[in-house]
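Fold these two proteins, one after the other.
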Amino acid sequence: MTTRNINSASGLGKKASGLLTTLAGEGKTIFTTQEAHEILAGSISATYKMLHDLLQGNWLLSLGKGRYLIIPLEAGPERQYTTHGFLIAHHLAPDGYIAYWTALHHHGLTEQIPRSVWVATTRRRKEMIIAGVRYIFATLRPYKMFGHERVWIEGQAVQVADLEKSLIDGLDHPEHCGGIAEVAKSLETALTERDTNLEQLTEYAQRMRNRAIFKRLGYLAEHLSLPVGDSLEAWHGALSAGYARLDPSQPATGPHNRRWRVQVNVAERDLVGWRDA
């Protein structure tokens, strides 16, 4: 994020300028009402009044529940909050981690830039739009909340799905990643251009308690002729009875692949059309 020069900015009183300067000096771009009150050291009503005025003057953006984002002065509208998307998501759902399409893009597995920030969390939350960015929260069972790593964004730690978990989450819910074609593309990139840990990929799939993951994973790996070695048969041995849709967001139409027990409900041109792009 571009940092504002608070001392030279017009329209701020001494106390307001001092508040933002102090917060900037502490490396905080997101802060709470209590933190502001401790800096201002006046009455709580005066703190509320100050924050209200800063909100009205577009110096702050409310994140709800007494949390605020300092709005940059110089950053343009298209990139104003790009570097803060993960930070905002972290403050909106401290128990969660960046996941799905957002995580795939973070790891460079898809060229498509998600218009939303996806967050996996155990608590049900309504999606929010902040400064034109949509934050979508996928509610997961606690046993699925693993496989994330710490990423530092402007001095603050944010949890992001690691490469293998990004893939497994995508196979669990392709609809959260732009569809199964985006997952297939990400899988090929990960297995041919990245140092993907196949043992960890298999372990993660086991821990998710959703055998449809193995069906999609095995079908895509074999269909795309990906370098997975002996893992292919290990995945085949983990299949459950019944058929799973290749893309759960699409109707249950199309041929059934008996080997992987998956209904291929996506046209070939749609599934691998990106290879010809």
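Now the second one:
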Amino acid sequence: MPTAFVTGITGQTGSYLADILLARGYLVVGLVRGGDETRQALEERTPGLDLVEGDLADEQHLARLVAEVAPDMIFNLGGLTSVAASWDHPLDTARITALPPAVLLDAALAVQRREDRPVAFVQASSAEIFGSPTVSPQNEETPVRPVNPYGAAKAYAHYLVASYRSMGLAASSCILYNHESPRRPETFVTRKITRTVARISLGLETELVLGSLDARRDWGWAPDYALALAMVGAAATSDATAANDYVIASGVSHTVRDFVAVAFAAAGIDDWEPYVKQDPRFRRPVDATELVGDSSRIRAALGWRPTVGFDELVGSMVRHDIELAGATPPSEQG
């Protein structure tokens, strides 16, 4: 039974990745923080996981865990994931998002040499490494020019992956564009939108307060992106030449305004503008203007394709949030 070691397993994409790996017959060892309140929900939703406690910032313990588990593949999805929060906590962002990949990559190479067998490493990178690109769409050759601490931390890890790949490790960097689902935490603007829209439709709230409505993003379905990670890891395990940098994206961009309009429509509200207020406090200090990805490489190499479109993605999140509030979604009413 092949073994996968996964950091960030309690997060949105990590939990979907765990589902996929278990279904494929892997032993899945997931790293969780002590006292993580989301652990119980993960164990109830996804039985069969082997969860171990640890802290990404504890370099020695992290390296020791990898040595003990001796996995066939490592998926690094851990770290601070909020661009906005990275401006408030730039040092923590460096410690938790930039440095742990260095520890994991070095530990993976040590296991590979000790066990005399391939160890695949898959880094969950981010489109934020491109900052405010001058070309659209972006691909794996687009210059890396981050404009925020989160993007800079991811860029450091991205370059490390390439360095260890040159050392013989089957290391891949999956450059993930925005990906959403009902499992997205409420601290993210997309989930803030769908949750608030659901509550407005039920008369529980009266307004949705946002920053810019004009920012454009390439939004995809998180389970599709988790599948891409699993495909890259499996391919690199069987053939080290499959290890590479891969853009994971839908290839279509939408504005925050589009997201809001589709969310309200899914809740049965067409005239949504009176409910939405803009507050400059919610604007990022520096924001990428437009991010849209070209995923031609992984489509050609591994056959990956997105399966869920933008409207369906947003609608599923709104319906989920309406159900959480104890009501029947409009599409399910008789």
